[in-house]
Amino acid sequence: MFDSPSPEALARCHTVAFEGLDARRVEVQCAVTAGLPGFAVVGLPDKAVSEARERVRTALQAMAIALPSKRITVNLSPADLPKEGSHFDLPIALALLAALGILPPDRVEEAVALGELSLDGRLVPVIGALPTALAAGEDDRVLLCPAACGAEAAWVGATPVFAAKSLADLIAHLTDRAPLDPARPGEIRDDPTTGCLSEVRGQERAKRALEIAAAGRHHMLMVGSPGSGKSMLAARLPGILPPLSAPEALETSMIQSLAGLLDEGGISRTRPYRAPHHTASMAAVVGGGRGAKPGEISLAHNGVLFLDEFPEYARAVLETLRQPIETGEVVVARANAHVTYPCRFLLIAAANPCRCGQLYDAGQACGRAPQCGAEYMGKISGPLMDRFDLRLEVPPVSYADLDLPPSGDTSAEIAKRVAAARDIQSARFAEIGVTARVNADAEGALLDRIATPDKAGKDLLLKAAEKFRLTARGYHRVLRLARTIADLDGAETVGQPHIAEAVGYRLIGAPSM
Protein backbone atom coordinates (compact mmCIF):
# COMPACT_ATOMS: atom_id res chain seq x y z
CA MET A 1 0.00 0.00 0.00
CA PHE A 2 1.03 3.59 -0.56
CA ASP A 3 0.90 6.20 2.15
CA SER A 4 -2.30 8.23 2.09
CA PRO A 5 -1.51 11.79 1.04
CA SER A 6 -2.35 14.66 3.32
CA PRO A 7 -5.28 16.91 2.39
CA GLU A 8 -2.78 19.57 1.29
CA ALA A 9 -1.24 17.09 -1.21
CA LEU A 10 -4.26 16.29 -3.31
CA ALA A 11 -4.48 13.19 -5.48
CA ARG A 12 -5.06 14.14 -9.08
CA CYS A 13 -6.05 12.52 -12.34
CA HIS A 14 -6.85 14.05 -15.71
CA THR A 15 -9.67 13.68 -18.21
CA VAL A 16 -11.50 15.84 -20.75
CA ALA A 17 -14.83 17.58 -21.32
CA PHE A 18 -16.04 17.79 -24.90
CA GLU A 19 -16.92 21.06 -26.63
CA GLY A 20 -17.54 20.06 -30.22
CA LEU A 21 -14.35 18.40 -31.48
CA ASP A 22 -12.30 20.16 -28.80
CA ALA A 23 -11.32 18.06 -25.80
CA ARG A 24 -11.06 20.56 -22.93
CA ARG A 25 -8.68 19.42 -20.21
CA VAL A 26 -10.21 18.67 -16.82
CA GLU A 27 -8.23 18.00 -13.65
CA VAL A 28 -9.94 15.61 -11.24
CA GLN A 29 -8.86 16.48 -7.70
CA CYS A 30 -9.73 14.22 -4.77
CA ALA A 31 -9.22 14.83 -1.05
CA VAL A 32 -10.09 12.54 1.86
CA THR A 33 -10.44 14.67 4.98
CA ALA A 34 -11.70 14.40 8.53
CA GLY A 35 -15.35 15.24 9.05
CA LEU A 36 -18.79 13.82 8.62
CA PRO A 37 -18.69 10.86 6.22
CA GLY A 38 -19.81 11.84 2.72
CA PHE A 39 -18.94 11.72 -0.96
CA ALA A 40 -19.38 14.96 -2.89
CA VAL A 41 -18.62 15.75 -6.54
CA VAL A 42 -18.33 19.47 -7.32
CA GLY A 43 -17.28 21.47 -10.37
CA LEU A 44 -20.49 21.95 -12.37
CA PRO A 45 -21.30 18.26 -12.98
CA ASP A 46 -24.46 17.16 -14.79
CA LYS A 47 -26.71 14.38 -13.55
CA ALA A 48 -24.60 11.59 -15.08
CA VAL A 49 -21.43 12.92 -13.44
CA SER A 50 -23.13 13.41 -10.06
CA GLU A 51 -24.29 9.80 -10.15
CA ALA A 52 -20.67 8.68 -10.60
CA ARG A 53 -20.18 8.63 -6.84
CA GLU A 54 -22.72 5.81 -6.47
CA ARG A 55 -21.20 3.79 -9.31
CA VAL A 56 -17.70 4.29 -7.93
CA ARG A 57 -18.74 3.45 -4.37
CA THR A 58 -20.53 0.24 -5.41
CA ALA A 59 -17.75 -0.85 -7.78
CA LEU A 60 -15.15 -0.46 -5.02
CA GLN A 61 -17.31 -2.44 -2.62
CA ALA A 62 -17.59 -5.21 -5.23
CA MET A 63 -13.77 -5.29 -5.25
CA ALA A 64 -13.66 -5.50 -1.43
CA ILE A 65 -12.30 -1.95 -1.12
CA ALA A 66 -14.04 -0.18 1.76
CA LEU A 67 -14.26 3.59 1.85
CA PRO A 68 -13.13 5.21 5.13
CA SER A 69 -15.55 7.02 7.43
CA LYS A 70 -14.26 10.39 6.26
CA ARG A 71 -15.35 13.14 3.95
CA ILE A 72 -14.48 12.53 0.28
CA THR A 73 -14.50 15.60 -1.96
CA VAL A 74 -13.95 15.40 -5.71
CA ASN A 75 -13.46 18.66 -7.61
CA LEU A 76 -13.58 18.84 -11.40
CA SER A 77 -11.40 21.78 -12.39
CA PRO A 78 -11.99 24.26 -14.02
CA ALA A 79 -15.16 24.53 -11.98
CA ASP A 80 -16.97 26.85 -14.42
CA LEU A 81 -16.78 24.38 -17.33
CA PRO A 82 -19.90 22.18 -17.66
CA LYS A 83 -19.10 18.47 -17.23
CA GLU A 84 -21.34 16.00 -19.06
CA GLY A 85 -21.22 12.26 -19.59
CA SER A 86 -20.43 9.06 -17.77
CA HIS A 87 -16.77 8.98 -18.86
CA PHE A 88 -15.81 10.81 -15.64
CA ASP A 89 -16.35 7.58 -13.62
CA LEU A 90 -12.88 6.16 -14.23
CA PRO A 91 -10.81 9.30 -13.47
CA ILE A 92 -12.85 9.89 -10.30
CA ALA A 93 -12.23 6.30 -9.18
CA LEU A 94 -8.49 6.50 -9.91
CA ALA A 95 -8.09 9.83 -8.10
CA LEU A 96 -9.97 8.41 -5.11
CA LEU A 97 -7.81 5.27 -5.02
CA ALA A 98 -4.69 7.44 -5.18
CA ALA A 99 -6.01 9.57 -2.30
CA LEU A 100 -6.60 6.41 -0.27
CA GLY A 101 -3.03 5.26 -0.89
CA ILE A 102 -4.04 2.22 -2.96
CA LEU A 103 -2.51 3.61 -6.15
CA PRO A 104 0.71 5.62 -6.56
CA PRO A 105 -0.38 9.26 -6.89
CA ASP A 106 2.36 10.11 -9.40
CA ARG A 107 1.31 7.31 -11.79
CA VAL A 108 -2.31 8.44 -11.61
CA GLU A 109 -1.46 12.12 -12.07
CA GLU A 110 0.50 11.51 -15.26
CA ALA A 111 -2.48 9.80 -16.93
CA VAL A 112 -5.57 10.90 -18.84
CA ALA A 113 -8.50 8.56 -18.17
CA LEU A 114 -12.04 8.10 -19.41
CA GLY A 115 -14.55 5.31 -18.99
CA GLU A 116 -17.81 4.35 -17.33
CA LEU A 117 -17.88 1.97 -14.39
CA SER A 118 -20.42 -0.79 -14.00
CA LEU A 119 -21.47 -1.79 -10.51
CA ASP A 120 -19.19 -4.84 -10.53
CA GLY A 121 -16.10 -2.87 -11.54
CA ARG A 122 -16.10 -3.61 -15.25
CA LEU A 123 -15.29 -0.74 -17.63
CA VAL A 124 -18.00 0.23 -20.11
CA PRO A 125 -17.02 1.90 -23.42
CA VAL A 126 -17.81 5.59 -23.91
CA ILE A 127 -17.73 8.02 -26.83
CA GLY A 128 -14.86 10.37 -27.61
CA ALA A 129 -11.84 8.11 -27.19
CA LEU A 130 -10.19 9.43 -30.36
CA PRO A 131 -10.17 13.16 -29.47
CA THR A 132 -9.21 12.24 -25.90
CA ALA A 133 -6.18 10.31 -27.12
CA LEU A 134 -5.19 13.31 -29.24
CA ALA A 135 -5.41 15.57 -26.18
CA ALA A 136 -3.37 13.09 -24.10
CA GLY A 137 -0.68 13.02 -26.77
CA GLU A 138 -0.48 16.81 -26.87
CA ASP A 139 0.00 16.87 -23.08
CA ASP A 140 2.50 13.99 -23.16
CA ARG A 141 0.37 11.78 -20.91
CA VAL A 142 -0.66 8.14 -21.18
CA LEU A 143 -4.30 7.25 -21.80
CA LEU A 144 -6.28 4.81 -19.64
CA CYS A 145 -9.60 3.65 -21.09
CA PRO A 146 -11.97 0.67 -21.39
CA ALA A 147 -10.82 -2.25 -23.51
CA ALA A 148 -13.53 -1.58 -26.12
CA CYS A 149 -12.11 1.94 -26.70
CA GLY A 150 -8.47 0.90 -26.99
CA ALA A 151 -8.35 0.10 -30.70
CA GLU A 152 -10.00 3.42 -31.53
CA ALA A 153 -7.77 5.53 -29.27
CA ALA A 154 -4.59 3.81 -30.47
CA TRP A 155 -5.10 5.27 -33.96
CA VAL A 156 -3.64 8.59 -32.83
CA GLY A 157 -0.26 6.96 -32.19
CA ALA A 158 0.97 9.97 -30.19
CA THR A 159 0.74 8.38 -26.76
CA PRO A 160 0.64 4.91 -25.15
CA VAL A 161 -2.93 3.67 -24.69
CA PHE A 162 -3.65 1.12 -21.97
CA ALA A 163 -7.10 -0.41 -22.29
CA ALA A 164 -8.47 -2.57 -19.49
CA LYS A 165 -11.58 -4.68 -19.07
CA SER A 166 -12.08 -3.72 -15.44
CA LEU A 167 -10.93 -1.33 -12.76
CA ALA A 168 -9.11 -4.23 -11.08
CA ASP A 169 -7.00 -4.68 -14.22
CA LEU A 170 -6.01 -1.01 -14.14
CA ILE A 171 -5.12 -1.22 -10.45
CA ALA A 172 -2.86 -4.19 -11.21
CA HIS A 173 -1.31 -2.26 -14.09
CA LEU A 174 -0.64 0.94 -12.14
CA THR A 175 0.88 -1.02 -9.23
CA ASP A 176 3.06 -3.05 -11.66
CA ARG A 177 1.59 -6.35 -10.51
CA ALA A 178 0.23 -7.16 -13.98
CA PRO A 179 1.25 -4.51 -16.55
CA LEU A 180 -1.01 -4.15 -19.58
CA ASP A 181 0.27 -4.21 -23.12
CA PRO A 182 -0.34 -1.01 -25.12
CA ALA A 183 -3.47 -1.15 -27.25
CA ARG A 184 -3.09 -1.58 -31.01
CA PRO A 185 -5.06 0.31 -33.66
CA GLY A 186 -8.13 -1.37 -35.11
CA GLU A 187 -8.15 -2.58 -38.67
CA ILE A 188 -9.07 -0.33 -41.57
CA ARG A 189 -12.53 -1.35 -42.68
CA ASP A 190 -13.27 -2.04 -46.29
CA ASP A 191 -16.89 -1.05 -46.64
CA PRO A 192 -19.01 -3.06 -49.07
CA THR A 193 -19.34 -1.71 -52.56
CA THR A 194 -22.05 0.84 -53.20
CA GLY A 195 -22.91 -0.54 -56.63
CA CYS A 196 -21.62 0.31 -60.08
CA LEU A 197 -22.73 3.23 -62.22
CA SER A 198 -22.83 0.95 -65.24
CA GLU A 199 -25.89 -0.68 -63.66
CA VAL A 200 -27.84 2.55 -64.14
CA ARG A 201 -29.69 2.29 -67.45
CA GLY A 202 -29.47 5.40 -69.60
CA GLN A 203 -28.97 8.73 -67.79
CA GLU A 204 -25.61 9.35 -69.44
CA ARG A 205 -25.79 13.10 -68.81
CA ALA A 206 -26.48 12.49 -65.14
CA LYS A 207 -23.51 10.12 -64.92
CA ARG A 208 -21.31 12.78 -66.50
CA ALA A 209 -22.58 15.33 -63.98
CA LEU A 210 -21.79 12.95 -61.10
CA GLU A 211 -18.26 12.56 -62.40
CA ILE A 212 -17.77 16.33 -62.52
CA ALA A 213 -19.29 16.74 -59.06
CA ALA A 214 -16.96 14.09 -57.62
CA ALA A 215 -13.87 15.54 -59.32
CA GLY A 216 -14.27 19.04 -57.88
CA ARG A 217 -16.69 18.51 -54.98
CA HIS A 218 -19.43 20.51 -56.66
CA HIS A 219 -22.93 20.49 -55.21
CA MET A 220 -25.61 19.05 -57.51
CA LEU A 221 -29.40 19.18 -57.79
CA MET A 222 -31.27 16.52 -59.75
CA VAL A 223 -34.89 17.13 -60.79
CA GLY A 224 -36.86 14.26 -62.28
CA SER A 225 -39.98 12.16 -62.16
CA PRO A 226 -40.35 9.42 -59.55
CA GLY A 227 -38.46 6.29 -60.58
CA SER A 228 -36.05 8.07 -62.92
CA GLY A 229 -33.04 6.86 -60.90
CA LYS A 230 -32.07 9.91 -58.83
CA SER A 231 -31.55 7.99 -55.58
CA MET A 232 -29.80 5.17 -57.43
CA LEU A 233 -27.35 7.63 -58.97
CA ALA A 234 -26.64 9.35 -55.66
CA ALA A 235 -26.06 6.05 -53.84
CA ARG A 236 -23.30 5.19 -56.32
CA LEU A 237 -21.43 8.46 -55.88
CA PRO A 238 -19.17 7.23 -53.00
CA GLY A 239 -17.93 4.49 -55.33
CA ILE A 240 -16.27 7.02 -57.65
CA LEU A 241 -14.81 9.25 -54.94
CA PRO A 242 -11.14 8.76 -53.96
CA PRO A 243 -10.55 7.19 -50.53
CA LEU A 244 -10.01 9.45 -47.56
CA SER A 245 -6.46 10.64 -47.03
CA ALA A 246 -4.93 10.06 -43.60
CA PRO A 247 -5.71 13.59 -42.30
CA GLU A 248 -9.24 13.40 -43.71
CA ALA A 249 -9.81 9.99 -42.14
CA LEU A 250 -8.74 11.35 -38.74
CA GLU A 251 -11.03 14.40 -39.08
CA THR A 252 -13.99 12.26 -40.09
CA SER A 253 -13.34 9.63 -37.42
CA MET A 254 -13.17 12.23 -34.64
CA ILE A 255 -16.71 13.35 -35.48
CA GLN A 256 -17.87 9.75 -35.69
CA SER A 257 -16.20 9.05 -32.33
CA LEU A 258 -18.19 11.82 -30.66
CA ALA A 259 -21.35 10.41 -32.25
CA GLY A 260 -20.51 6.85 -31.14
CA LEU A 261 -20.39 5.53 -34.71
CA LEU A 262 -16.94 3.91 -34.73
CA ASP A 263 -17.37 0.14 -34.73
CA GLU A 264 -14.77 -1.78 -32.71
CA GLY A 265 -12.15 0.89 -33.30
CA GLY A 266 -12.12 0.37 -37.05
CA ILE A 267 -11.51 3.45 -39.16
CA SER A 268 -12.78 3.48 -42.71
CA ARG A 269 -11.10 5.16 -45.68
CA THR A 270 -14.42 5.14 -47.55
CA ARG A 271 -16.04 8.57 -47.63
CA PRO A 272 -19.17 8.84 -45.49
CA TYR A 273 -22.59 8.84 -47.13
CA ARG A 274 -25.46 10.31 -45.13
CA ALA A 275 -29.07 10.39 -46.31
CA PRO A 276 -31.39 11.84 -43.63
CA HIS A 277 -35.16 11.62 -44.15
CA HIS A 278 -36.96 14.80 -45.15
CA THR A 279 -38.81 14.81 -41.82
CA ALA A 280 -35.52 15.16 -39.88
CA SER A 281 -35.44 18.00 -37.39
CA MET A 282 -33.10 20.97 -37.36
CA ALA A 283 -31.01 19.45 -34.55
CA ALA A 284 -30.71 16.13 -36.44
CA VAL A 285 -29.54 17.74 -39.68
CA VAL A 286 -27.51 20.73 -38.51
CA GLY A 287 -26.54 19.63 -35.00
CA GLY A 288 -27.65 20.48 -31.49
CA GLY A 289 -29.89 18.84 -28.95
CA ARG A 290 -28.54 17.78 -25.59
CA GLY A 291 -24.82 18.50 -25.50
CA ALA A 292 -24.85 20.20 -28.94
CA LYS A 293 -24.01 16.96 -30.74
CA PRO A 294 -22.93 16.91 -34.42
CA GLY A 295 -25.70 16.66 -37.01
CA GLU A 296 -25.94 14.91 -40.36
CA ILE A 297 -24.05 17.67 -42.19
CA SER A 298 -21.05 17.16 -39.89
CA LEU A 299 -21.29 13.37 -40.04
CA ALA A 300 -21.04 13.81 -43.84
CA HIS A 301 -17.78 15.79 -43.49
CA ASN A 302 -15.39 14.84 -46.31
CA GLY A 303 -18.17 12.74 -47.83
CA VAL A 304 -21.62 12.93 -49.40
CA LEU A 305 -24.83 14.39 -47.99
CA PHE A 306 -27.86 13.20 -49.99
CA LEU A 307 -31.12 15.05 -49.42
CA ASP A 308 -33.94 13.28 -51.25
CA GLU A 309 -37.30 15.00 -51.70
CA PHE A 310 -35.42 18.27 -51.24
CA PRO A 311 -38.40 20.68 -51.30
CA GLU A 312 -40.14 18.61 -48.60
CA TYR A 313 -37.58 19.53 -45.94
CA ALA A 314 -38.62 22.20 -43.47
CA ARG A 315 -37.86 25.66 -44.83
CA ALA A 316 -35.83 26.54 -41.74
CA VAL A 317 -33.64 23.45 -42.20
CA LEU A 318 -32.96 24.26 -45.86
CA GLU A 319 -32.09 27.88 -45.19
CA THR A 320 -29.71 26.88 -42.39
CA LEU A 321 -27.67 24.93 -44.95
CA ARG A 322 -26.66 28.07 -46.80
CA GLN A 323 -23.82 29.18 -44.54
CA PRO A 324 -22.31 25.70 -43.94
CA ILE A 325 -22.23 25.13 -47.72
CA GLU A 326 -20.14 28.27 -48.17
CA THR A 327 -17.86 28.12 -45.12
CA GLY A 328 -17.47 24.38 -44.51
CA GLU A 329 -18.26 24.90 -40.81
CA VAL A 330 -21.41 25.01 -38.71
CA VAL A 331 -21.73 26.81 -35.40
CA VAL A 332 -24.16 25.17 -32.98
CA ALA A 333 -25.15 27.81 -30.44
CA ARG A 334 -27.17 26.83 -27.39
CA ALA A 335 -27.73 28.45 -24.01
CA ASN A 336 -25.08 26.26 -22.39
CA ALA A 337 -22.92 25.42 -25.41
CA HIS A 338 -21.35 27.19 -28.37
CA VAL A 339 -19.40 24.75 -30.53
CA THR A 340 -18.12 24.60 -34.09
CA TYR A 341 -18.10 21.46 -36.22
CA PRO A 342 -16.52 20.99 -39.66
CA CYS A 343 -18.97 20.12 -42.43
CA ARG A 344 -17.21 20.27 -45.79
CA PHE A 345 -19.48 17.87 -47.65
CA LEU A 346 -20.63 17.22 -51.20
CA LEU A 347 -24.35 17.99 -51.33
CA ILE A 348 -26.51 15.97 -53.70
CA ALA A 349 -30.18 17.00 -53.68
CA ALA A 350 -33.01 15.29 -55.52
CA ALA A 351 -36.50 16.61 -56.18
CA ASN A 352 -39.61 15.77 -58.13
CA PRO A 353 -40.60 18.48 -60.65
CA CYS A 354 -43.92 19.01 -58.84
CA ARG A 355 -45.87 17.57 -55.92
CA CYS A 356 -47.32 14.65 -57.92
CA GLY A 357 -44.08 14.21 -59.86
CA GLN A 358 -45.73 13.86 -63.27
CA LEU A 359 -45.10 17.36 -64.63
CA TYR A 360 -42.98 16.03 -67.51
CA ASP A 361 -45.69 13.61 -68.66
CA ALA A 362 -48.52 15.53 -70.30
CA GLY A 363 -50.80 12.50 -70.11
CA GLN A 364 -50.51 12.19 -66.32
CA ALA A 365 -49.83 15.75 -65.16
CA CYS A 366 -52.50 17.52 -63.13
CA GLY A 367 -54.63 20.34 -64.48
CA ARG A 368 -52.51 22.97 -62.74
CA ALA A 369 -49.37 22.25 -64.75
CA PRO A 370 -46.97 24.01 -65.15
CA GLN A 371 -47.93 26.38 -62.33
CA CYS A 372 -47.84 23.52 -59.82
CA GLY A 373 -44.19 22.86 -60.71
CA ALA A 374 -43.22 26.50 -60.23
CA GLU A 375 -44.90 26.58 -56.83
CA TYR A 376 -43.31 23.31 -55.72
CA MET A 377 -39.77 24.24 -56.75
CA GLY A 378 -40.38 27.67 -55.28
CA LYS A 379 -39.96 26.09 -51.87
CA ILE A 380 -36.23 26.20 -52.63
CA SER A 381 -35.14 29.81 -52.18
CA GLY A 382 -33.12 31.59 -54.83
CA PRO A 383 -30.02 32.03 -52.64
CA LEU A 384 -30.02 28.30 -51.83
CA MET A 385 -30.59 27.33 -55.46
CA ASP A 386 -27.66 29.59 -56.39
CA ARG A 387 -25.33 27.40 -54.33
CA PHE A 388 -25.75 24.38 -56.60
CA ASP A 389 -23.00 24.21 -59.22
CA LEU A 390 -24.80 21.56 -61.23
CA ARG A 391 -28.54 21.45 -61.89
CA LEU A 392 -29.94 18.92 -64.30
CA GLU A 393 -33.15 17.25 -65.28
CA VAL A 394 -33.22 13.47 -64.97
CA PRO A 395 -35.73 12.21 -67.56
CA PRO A 396 -37.77 9.04 -67.06
CA VAL A 397 -36.13 5.84 -68.26
CA SER A 398 -37.92 4.13 -71.13
CA TYR A 399 -38.94 0.48 -70.94
CA ALA A 400 -36.59 -0.26 -73.84
CA ASP A 401 -33.63 1.06 -71.86
CA LEU A 402 -34.49 -1.17 -68.92
CA ASP A 403 -34.03 -4.27 -71.08
CA LEU A 404 -30.56 -3.22 -72.20
CA PRO A 405 -27.46 -4.75 -70.59
CA PRO A 406 -25.26 -2.56 -68.33
CA SER A 407 -23.71 0.21 -70.37
CA GLY A 408 -21.25 3.05 -69.98
CA ASP A 409 -18.09 3.18 -67.93
CA THR A 410 -17.89 1.29 -64.68
CA SER A 411 -17.48 3.06 -61.36
CA ALA A 412 -13.86 1.89 -61.21
CA GLU A 413 -13.08 3.52 -64.57
CA ILE A 414 -14.78 6.75 -63.59
CA ALA A 415 -13.01 6.71 -60.21
CA LYS A 416 -9.64 6.64 -61.99
CA ARG A 417 -10.54 9.78 -63.96
CA VAL A 418 -11.82 11.48 -60.82
CA ALA A 419 -8.61 10.59 -58.93
CA ALA A 420 -6.48 11.91 -61.79
CA ALA A 421 -8.41 15.21 -61.81
CA ARG A 422 -8.05 15.55 -58.05
CA ASP A 423 -4.32 14.86 -58.30
CA ILE A 424 -4.06 17.71 -60.81
CA GLN A 425 -5.86 20.01 -58.38
CA SER A 426 -3.71 18.94 -55.42
CA ALA A 427 -0.50 19.52 -57.36
CA ARG A 428 -1.73 22.93 -58.56
CA PHE A 429 -2.69 24.12 -55.07
CA ALA A 430 0.54 22.74 -53.57
CA GLU A 431 2.57 24.65 -56.15
CA ILE A 432 0.70 27.85 -55.35
CA GLY A 433 1.06 27.22 -51.62
CA VAL A 434 -2.58 27.37 -50.49
CA THR A 435 -4.62 25.08 -48.26
CA ALA A 436 -7.42 24.49 -50.78
CA ARG A 437 -7.98 20.84 -51.65
CA VAL A 438 -10.39 20.90 -54.59
CA ASN A 439 -11.66 23.45 -57.07
CA ALA A 440 -14.80 24.07 -55.01
CA ASP A 441 -12.55 25.64 -52.34
CA ALA A 442 -11.09 28.25 -54.73
CA GLU A 443 -12.35 31.79 -54.44
CA GLY A 444 -11.24 35.38 -54.97
CA ALA A 445 -7.76 35.88 -56.37
CA LEU A 446 -7.05 32.14 -56.30
CA LEU A 447 -10.04 31.44 -58.54
CA ASP A 448 -8.98 34.17 -60.96
CA ARG A 449 -5.51 32.66 -61.09
CA ILE A 450 -6.51 29.08 -61.83
CA ALA A 451 -9.76 29.44 -63.79
CA THR A 452 -9.52 32.52 -65.99
CA PRO A 453 -10.76 31.29 -69.40
CA ASP A 454 -9.31 32.08 -72.81
CA LYS A 455 -10.84 34.89 -74.88
CA ALA A 456 -13.52 32.74 -76.52
CA GLY A 457 -14.48 31.24 -73.19
CA LYS A 458 -14.56 34.68 -71.58
CA ASP A 459 -16.88 36.05 -74.26
CA LEU A 460 -19.24 33.09 -73.90
CA LEU A 461 -19.30 33.43 -70.11
CA LEU A 462 -20.14 37.13 -70.26
CA LYS A 463 -22.98 36.49 -72.71
CA ALA A 464 -24.35 33.70 -70.54
CA ALA A 465 -24.08 35.82 -67.39
CA GLU A 466 -26.07 38.60 -69.05
CA LYS A 467 -28.68 36.39 -70.68
CA PHE A 468 -29.38 34.22 -67.65
CA ARG A 469 -28.75 37.00 -65.14
CA LEU A 470 -26.19 35.08 -63.15
CA THR A 471 -25.36 36.44 -59.71
CA ALA A 472 -21.76 37.06 -58.75
CA ARG A 473 -21.84 33.76 -56.87
CA GLY A 474 -23.28 32.00 -59.91
CA TYR A 475 -20.63 33.54 -62.15
CA HIS A 476 -17.83 32.25 -59.94
CA ARG A 477 -19.44 28.83 -59.62
CA VAL A 478 -19.48 28.51 -63.40
CA LEU A 479 -15.74 29.27 -63.38
CA ARG A 480 -15.06 26.62 -60.73
CA LEU A 481 -17.14 24.08 -62.61
CA ALA A 482 -15.39 24.86 -65.90
CA ARG A 483 -12.00 24.48 -64.20
CA THR A 484 -12.96 20.99 -63.04
CA ILE A 485 -14.23 20.03 -66.50
CA ALA A 486 -10.91 21.21 -67.94
CA ASP A 487 -9.04 19.12 -65.35
CA LEU A 488 -11.02 16.03 -66.38
CA ASP A 489 -9.98 16.75 -69.96
CA GLY A 490 -6.37 17.32 -68.92
CA ALA A 491 -6.44 20.87 -70.29
CA GLU A 492 -4.17 23.57 -68.89
CA THR A 493 -6.50 26.44 -69.78
CA VAL A 494 -10.26 26.77 -69.40
CA GLY A 495 -11.67 26.98 -72.92
CA GLN A 496 -14.97 27.72 -74.60
CA PRO A 497 -16.19 24.06 -74.56
CA HIS A 498 -15.60 23.89 -70.80
CA ILE A 499 -17.50 27.12 -70.19
CA ALA A 500 -20.34 25.94 -72.44
CA GLU A 501 -20.75 22.67 -70.57
CA ALA A 502 -20.55 24.41 -67.20
CA VAL A 503 -23.21 26.95 -68.17
CA GLY A 504 -25.46 24.15 -69.41
CA TYR A 505 -25.56 22.66 -65.91
CA ARG A 506 -26.93 25.88 -64.35
CA LEU A 507 -30.02 26.48 -66.49
CA ILE A 508 -32.57 24.76 -64.23
CA GLY A 509 -33.85 27.37 -61.85
CA ALA A 510 -32.35 30.27 -63.81
CA PRO A 511 -34.69 33.15 -64.56
CA SER A 512 -36.12 33.07 -68.06
CA MET A 513 -35.92 36.05 -70.37
List descriptors:
alpha/beta, Mg_chelat-rel, 513 residues, four-stranded mixed β-sheet
Annotate the secondary structure layout.
Blueprint: E1 11-19, E2 22-33, E3 38-42, H1 47-50, H2 52-62, E4 71-77, H3 89-99, H4 105-109, E5 111-113, E6 116-117, E7 123-124, H5 129-138, E8 142-146, H6 147-153, E9 161-164, H7 167-174, E10 188-189, H8 204-216, E11 220-224, H9 230-235, H10 246-258, E12 267-268, E13 273-274, H11 282-286, E14 287-288, E15 293-294, H12 296-299, E16 304-307, H13 315-320, H14 322-327, E17 329-334, E18 337-342, E19 346-351, H15 371-377, H16 382-385, E20 390-394, H17 399-402, H18 411-432, H19 444-451, H20 455-467, H21 472-489, H22 496-504
Parallel strand pairs: 3-4, 5-8, 8-9, 10-12, 11-19, 11-20, 13-16, 16-19
Antiparallel strand pairs: 1-2, 2-4, 6-7, 14-15, 17-18
